[in-house]
Specification:
43% of the residues lie in helices and 19% in strands. It is an alpha/beta fold. The structure holds 5'-O-[(R)-(carboxyoxy)(hydroxy)phosphoryl]adenosine and zinc ion (ZN). The site of zinc ion has 6 residues, from helix 4.
Length: 334
């Protein structure tokens, strides 16, 4: 089964062609970084306009690279939410119209489910059940995944998402957008033990997260150290280490609690090299296998949306043409 995936929930216009939910025939991502950079973050109105300009060329390119003609497609899947409503509407409406004109099913996909499916686009996917850490710009959650469509949320952030904390700390340090990638790079040449920021575990036996106190601690450090510019790499490394310690602890703890031997990390922050390294090290000690998508599949992409659409269709689900987009989490993933 060949599915065209479409993703426009934030600042990437993406289209991909995926066979049987696992084999990527093409994955095109048109980034809007240059558009939003001068503003220090994503401007929703500009994002929508750029999606509108890019959607047709990006879909054409995805079909061209996959060497697929529209009549070879079996379904079109698009992100329904969560995300920026104006941005979502572009890809979602396009997918509805395109599938209708081709007379094939149209699948409304949850973006977070897409991130979890991204790990199945790699060679060595996790066997069920597994514990998944989803770390993106808007979400930080741990799920216990028992089948292609069954996700039990064990915990989530009570305030900022991990990616959001990276973005805000980058802004505080005057490093700008896109924050996560910049902080990750600066941290690589800093000393993570020079400035120790708090590790916020909340209840150590639970799976909820909180990152706003850590963000405040970094801000306080900046305010009380007028010459902080000389140690930006160490601040970035100290902050990153505090985030990574908590994420790794909670994910491994979830796997132990649920008695499962496999874990996955997905979402934009899963591209962070220290997070990948630390979780691999911690898991190795416990005999737990770690599954992380390649860097291109951590950030937003449409291959993961096509893969999630495939799971839906395989489970007999389909979407109504009357379905609408939504901005916040709103599904069985809650
Ligand atoms: O999944 P994603 O691309 O979009 C959302 O669904 O939100 O995640 C974006 C988030 C941003 O907050 C970005 O700063 C963060 O992922 N990110 C990183 C890195 N690359 C992207 N955070 C830490 N280290 C990175 N290397
Ligand atoms: Zn995402």
């Amino acid at each position: 089964m060949i599915i065209l995936g479409i993703e426009t929930s934030c600042d990437e216009t993406a289209a991909a062609v995926v066979r049987d939910g696992t084999q990527i025939l093409s994955s095109v991502v048109s980034s809007q970084i240059a558009v939003h950079k001068p503003y220090g973050g994503v401007v929703p109105e500009l994002a929508s306009r750029k999606h509108l300009e890019a959607i047709v060329p990006v879909v054409r390119e995805a079909l061209h690279i996959a060497q697929i003609s529209p009549k070879d497609l079996d379904a079109v899947a698009a992100t329904q939410g969560p995300g920026l409503v104006g941005a979502l509407l572009i890809g979602f409406s396009f997918a509805k119209a395109y599938s209708y004109s081709l007379g094939i099913p149209y699948l409304a996909v949850n973006h977070l489910e897409g991130h979890i499916r991204s790990v199945f686009l790699e060679e060595n996917p996790p066997p069920y059940p597994f514990a998944a850490l989803l770390v993106s710009g808007g979400h930080t959650s741990i799920y216990y995944v028992t089948s292609p469509t069954v996700y039990e949320q064990l915990g989530q952030t009570v305030d900022d998402a991990a990616g959001e904390a990276f973005d805000k700390v980058s802004k505080m340090l005057g490093l700008g957008y896109p924050g996560g990638t910049i902080i990750g790079k600066m941290a690589a040449s800093g000393n993570p033990e020079k400035i120790i920021f708090p590790r916020i575990y909340l209840d150590k036996s639970g799976f909820n997260f909180s990152f706003s106190g850590l963000k405040t601690a970094v801000n306080r450090y900046i305010q009380t150290h007028p010459d902080y510019r000389t140690e930006i790499n160490d601040i970035a490394a100290g902050f990153q280490e505090a985030v990574v310690d908590v994420l790794s602890y909670k994910l491994i703890h979830a796997a132990c609690e649920k008695n499962c031997r496999h874990i996955a990390i997905v979402g934009g922050v899963a591209a962070n090299s220290r997070l990948r390294e630390k979780i691999r090290l911690d898991a190795e000690h416990k005999g737990i296998s770690v599954h992380i998508p390649s860097i291109q599949l951590c950030g937003d992409n449409a291959a993961m949306i096509a893969a999630a659409g495939y799971s839906d269709i395989a489970a007999g689900r389909h979407s109504e043409m009357s379905a609408d987009v939504y901005s916040r989490v709103h599904s069985y993933l809650i």
